[in-house]
Amino acid sequence: MNRPEKIFLISLALFFFAVPSVWPQTQPAPPRNAPQTRARQQTPGKENVLVGRISLVEGELLRYVPAEKDWVVAVKDSPFGFEDAIYSGEDGKAEFLLPNSTWLRIGPSTQVQMIALKPDATEIDVAAGTARFIDRSSKAVIKATTPFGYAVAEPGSAFDLYVGDESVEVIGIRGKVEFVHDVDGSRYEVIPGSMSILADAHQATAGEGKVDAEWDDWNATRDTMWSKSLETKGDSVKYLPEGISEEAGVLDQNGRWERVYYDGEYVDAWRPTEVEPDWEPYTEGRWTDYYGDYAWIPDEPFGYVTHHYGYWFWANDYWYWTPPVVSVGIGLPWWGIGFSWYPGRVGWCWSGVDVGWFPLLPWEPFYAYNWWGPRSFVIHNVGYIHVPFHRYRFANRAVVVPQARLFTTRNLAGARLAGISRGAAFQSNFRTIPTLGGAALANAGNRSLRYRFANANPTGVPGRAVTARVAGNSARFTQAQAGVTGASIRQGAASARLARPTTASIAAPRATNRLSGAVSGSGTATQARTLNSNPRSVRPGARGFAATPATRTGGRTAVQAGRRTGTGGASSQTRVGAQTGSAARSSSGAAVRRSGSTSGANRAGAAVGQASRQGSQAGRQQYQSRQGVSRQQLQRSQRGYGTAAQQGRVGQGRYGTSQTNRRSSGIQGASGYRQGASGYRQSAPQSGRSGGAQRSSRGGQGQESQGGRQGGGGGGGGGGGGFRGR
Predict the structure, then answer these.
(1) What is the pLDDT, as a whole number, of residue 226?
(2) pTM tops 0.85
(3) From residue 474, how far is each of 113, 213, 370, 480, 663 by CA, in Å?
(4) How far apart are CA 555 and CA 598, in angstroms?
(5) Would you state the torsion angle of the CA atoms of residues 263, 267, 271, 277, taken in this order, to the nearest 10 degrees?
(6) Could you tell me which residue, 465 or 63, shows the higher pLDDT?
(7) What is residue 625's DSSP assignment?
């Protein structure tokens, strides 16, 4: 039998086996919050569901639960999609990664809510607080709504929002950003490195365009972390689709890829190696109710991508994970599953007081109250579904726990029941069911606990102003999900009248902590605070973190090991203190000389800037020279750099307000160059360890090579220059 015939017969068999059979009184009615799936019961096959994740949580982060009209504590690797509403505590910060390569970070006392998430569009409401949007995509446009208007950003851009009680400020970091004022629909350009837009309920004016220094430093630290992570040269980058490519590093660190022969086919699959011998999928973590279906909240560092995309299978005495497949042509390989987010692609079984679950293969039916992606079946309020045990390959490998432990245990690995017979007795004692509900949860205790993401209670909950905004956004969620596209956002902004800011005086954004009964450390009620209380200018080419994702060919990443081109700063490929996370960078040759260092780096750097190609050679020479610099000299260089920065001079140039010295988790840097009218020159080389990369500035664009890099606009500190070409 040839391959096409085999695929046809398998597909025909799957069609008959996948059709759910109706069987009276074997499956309870849907949960009480099922009607909330109004907008999520989409027509199967039309559009894959996109859901982002919370990749970092500092302090307290809260998520609103519509079914309970209450707030729960959110944790790292919680989902962020649909109309999810988030509020950060007084000391909270968080980072959100979205699968269309648009990212969001929020600061303390910040309220955000997802409105729409499409392959070419992200719309998020920022009702209060501080937020930074980063568009790393090649096609997605960002729309950030506020009580005063909305900002629109194109691919490759980044901007800050400071949303106060009475005003908002939009600050461009890079790329094209515009603000449309609600009062009259006027559109204003936000120019990175120049003016910002300040607006209140009546008018809009130009601001100084300075970001908050502490907030900017925190973002620089995150940029540096991701730049290093995305520089991985491991195998995972070859197999992951663009939307989850940032997970390549964590997969390389925690497992390896193998060519596995399974069901008559060879499959490229990933196997975790940094786990216990008895590890199984969907054990290290917990279940939570997510819009009527159950989502897995993992504890493993690799858990999010491997439990929400692709599928698991058992072979050669190991569990293997296969990533989602980007479909080409008609259909998918019989062993593949399309790129879509699933809350937890498992089958369920129960017996008395116990409940269990097991991973599903791509052709096995996944039942849910929402349509999540290919090969899923939406449960409607009609009849009851009987699921034969024999349809599932791994049903007899189910993880079984007492119902009472299901929503009260932080990590269900320790709640697994041992000594369960896996033969015929298991099939006779356990009944397979489409999803949890009814008798399968009769002994689960307080069912409101199923909405928890952690075994912790909020220290405070947002007040009525917050929930009122959430309710208003949810009311327009259905329309937004159906109608929002990148084209519609662009068209809406372009139709607004382009205007110039007024000269009126508008107060800087000030925001009040909106947690009910919130008090400060002194025990007094919190007061409104200025969101941008420590302003600092945006450096030219600042935040040189990757503006676009990796270049891909045929669904796989084209890893360019040699040369990358781009704009806006030097590459953050520089490994600055990679082992300790701290480093020192000095662009001042004078500072190096003050420290007593007479290395060849000074002489090599002095010549940089005469021609583009000389930058690479000088960089290599400087790197070799730096290898001989002792730790003692480097420390003296750092101290000398601080003196030079304090004096305000770097070689022959001066520090501008946009190039001041800053410290971000031990990272020091400054641009330290001067650009003349007749061309450019670099006053002195950078000293300290910089991964062997000499930077030079020439206009706004440049190129970089393995030994030396030529970046546009000068290399920044803190963020680590520019990470381009990905």
Answers:
(1) 92
(2) no
(3) 9, 34, 17, 10, 41
(4) 49
(5) 20
(6) 63
(7) H
Give the number of other Cβ atoms within 10 Å of residue 420's Cβ. 17
- Report, as an integer, the average pLDDT of 356-383: 86
Which two three-digit tokens encode residue 585? Answer: 């960078």
97-101, 481-485, 540-544: which range is least confident on average?
540-544
Nearest to 711 by CA among 702, 723, 699, 719: 702
**Could you tell me the two tokens for 217?**
């430093």
Cβ-based neighbours of 26, under 8 Å, separated by 6 or more: 384, 385, 386, 431, 433
CA atoms within 13 A on the CB side of 677: 0
- Of the two residues 374 and 433, the one the predictor is more confident about is 433
Give the whole-angstrom CA distance, residue 252 versus residue 229.
10
Strand partners, 159: 133, 172
Residues 6 or more apart in contact with residue 701 via CB below 8 angstroms:
565, 566, 567, 712
Buried b (16+ CB within 10 A) or exposed e, 636-658: bbbebbbebbeeebbbebebeeb
Helix or strand (DSSP H, E) at 567: strand 564-567
- Rounded to an integer, what distance in angstroms lies between the CA atom of residue 587 and that of residue 195? 27
Instruction: Give the Cβ contact number of residue 19 at 10 Å.
Output: 9
How does DSSP assign 676-697, residue by residue? -TTS-B-SS--BS--TT-EEEE
Q: In degrees, to the nearest 5, what angle opens at C-alpha 451 toward C-alphas 448 and 457?
A: 85
Please provide the DSSP assignment of 630-651 as one string. -HHHHHHHHHHHHHHHHHTEET
Residue 547 tokens, joined? 């503006």
Whole-angstrom CA distances from 242 to 97, 551, 616 are 12, 9, 31
Report d(CA 221, CA 156) in Å as an integer. 19
Pairwise CA distance, residues 651 & 188, whole Å: 39
Give per-residue pLDDT as tens, 8-21.
Answer: 454 444 444 444 43
